[in-house]
Amino acid sequence: MKLRVYVDRMSQPSRAILIFCKTNGIDFEEVKVNLAKGEHRRPEFKDINPMNQVPAVVDGKLKLFESHAILRYLSCAYPGISDNWYPADLSKRAKIDSVLDWHHSNLRRGAAGLVFNSVLAPALGYPLNLEAAADAEKILIYSLSKIESVWLRGNEKFLVDGLQPSIADLSLVCEIMQLEVLGLSERDRILGSFTKVQKWIENVKHSTYPHFEEVHALLYRAAEKFQGKEAVKPLHGLESKRKEYLKPKL
Fold it and tell me: Smallest Cα–Cα separation from 111: which of 143, 158, 88?
């Protein structure tokens, strides 16, 4: 039975799974789960992932959720996957695992929290929360600075290996790409001073071409729509208040 991948392309980890599968030539069926329509809460999906989140996969009798676990599994279970993605060398693998574990408590808290509380919340039935967005931005800026000072401190193209991408590069870059929803000016304001991060993002895009851009096409279109909706306008109208929240905490 063909691998089934349950995703919403607006979901950062969903995109990472899709790009990985496409880049590595894994034969799979994409099953779309529309989060905005609440399809992740349907009983039939809960049978696949009792946490009601995407992504999830079904591979034969195996039902698996959590994107990092899925990326690890696919790297090991499917033949022909280049070793750089999740090396057989346990010391290299441990370094990748450490980045992935760090991701959830740091970069994801910052990037996802900022985007959700300043733009996406109304689309999912929640109010905007500027204070929470400001707190998330602080975590995001800290996380980006750590990526540059710890993993990209030299001339490394990628986080762990330096010369080739791993599942950690793919997961973290897909997370940062969610900032597209904020609009170009906001995204550039946040990423502008992190030149190593920007080069790293381009390296990951290039190493997964053309799949990276194809999978992100929906996000780009959604970003354009969000910039024209009333839901996003408070982000700009309350810019001075956002600075008030951020200033004393930096």
Answer: 143
What is the pTM (predicted TM-score) of this model? Answer: 0.91
Distances 81 to 23, 117, 202, 230 between C-alpha atoms, Å: 10, 37, 22, 45
In tens, the pLDDT along 184-233 reads 999 999 999 999 999 999 999 999 999 999 999 999 999 999 887 533 34
Asked whether the beta carbons of 63 and 56 are under 8 A apart, the reply is yes
How far apart are alpha carbons 42 and 94 in whole angstroms?
A: 36
Q: What angle do CA 145, 151, 152 make, to 5 degrees?
A: 75
Q: What pLDDT sits at residue 233? A: 40
Q: Among the listed ranges 23-37, 38-52, 205-219, 228-242, which one has the minimum average pLDDT value?
A: 228-242
CB 24 within 8 A of CB 85: yes
Q: Tokens 């995204």 — which residue?
A: 187
Among residues 10, 2, 75, which one has the least CA distance to residue 219?
A: 10
pLDDT, tens only, 134-189: 999 999 999 999 999 999 999 899 999 889 999 999 999 999 999 999 999 999 99
Q: How far apart are CA 134 and CA 19, in angstroms?
A: 30
**In this structure, are residues 219 and 181 in contact, taking their beta carbons and an 8 Å threshold?**
yes
